Amino acid sequence: MTAPKSRPILFSGPMVRAILDGTKTQTRRVARIDDESFSDAYVQYGDGHSGIGAYVGESEYPDDGSVFVQCPFGAPGDLLWVRETWRVHGGQEYEYQQDRASVMYRADMDMGTLDLDWEWRPSIFMPRWASRITLRVESVRVERLRDIAALDCIAEGLDLPIGINESDLLRGKAPAGMDLRLRFATAWDSLHKPGNRWEDNPWVWVVGFRRESP
User: Fold this and answer.
1) What would the pLDDT profile of 8-21 be if each residue is shown by its tens digit?
2) Cα separation, 30 vs 200, whole angstroms
């Protein structure tokens, strides 16, 4: 049996907190698909020779001049270890001990009382040993960003509007779904540059996951 592959993935502080709370079980990441050259109808998700990805072609037949874009976040069963903003208690010299018990995570801090003199390390520089969260990929697909459904907004970590439950969303209660999608769009745009924002409607990988036990 082939061992699952393990890859790093970056999350912001609010998303780390949502994962720890158990409210975030899905993430969307921009897919590098040249959408000016291909029709939406000819972008198909599939399992290719190189792994899970998207067939991007010029016709409805995937094998007819198509380009295969592999999903960089793996396939169901693979692992993702989370990188987040961090620091080692006592200073960088303690990093050599590689003791996760000495690691502090900015997502845990009360931002109102945060000591601004602390030097936080960017998430991109977090090594594997310092990561406290491991996710197991459960599903992967590719779609347009604005195709997100209201229930998927919940899976992305958004709270349900007051007085609304998931059955309301399943019945297509428009105001609730619209509110969630607008909130998701605002959150997405705060993290992405022009070209990959809500109005641009880029292709995205939709990765469903569950948190592994610590």
Assistant:
1) 999 999 999 999 99
2) 11
Would you say 64 and 58 are in contact if contact means Cβ atoms under 8 Å apart?
Answer: yes
**Secondary structure letter of residue 160 according to DSSP:** P
Q: Flag whether pLDDT at 40 surpasses 80.
A: no
Distance from the first to the final alpha carbon of the chain: 24
The rounded distance, in Å, linking the Cα atoms of 106 and 199 is 31
DSSP element (H, E) containing 27: strand 26-30
| Cα(147)–Cα(195) distance, integer angstroms | 17
Model's pTM, two decimal places?
0.83
**How many residues are given for the chain?**
214
Count other Cβ atoms within 10 Å, centred on residue 14.
14
Q: Do 56 and 67 meet the contact criterion of CB atoms below 8 Å apart?
A: yes
Q: What distance in Å separates the CA atoms of residue 197 and residue 120, rounded to the nearest whole number?
A: 28
9: closest CA among 100, 134, 120?
Answer: 134
Whole-angstrom distance, CA of residue 86 vs CA of residue 84: 6
